[in-house]
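Quick start: what a row looks like.
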Amino acid sequence: MLLTLTLVTVALVVVALAGYLIAIAWALLQAKRSVAAIADGLEAVAGHTQPLPDKLATINGALGALLDGFRAADGHLGRAATVFRL
């Protein structure tokens, strides 16, 4: 009787452990799929942002010219404010 009870208990423990291991394996497979999808997305982002430094250099040059224009306008407005005592 004790031997049968022990074997049944051992069988239940083995079945429970097997169930947990199967659940862990399933979760790891899903995580692998998610990580692969994230890696693909990051590669796509890297491809889309690759030409960005060239465009940023162009934008930076244009903004430098715009800054010079704003500084000139600020100087003119400052002189006009002095004339009108503002």
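That is the whole record. The two ends are 106 Å apart (CA to CA). Residues 18 and 62 are 65 Å apart (CA to CA).
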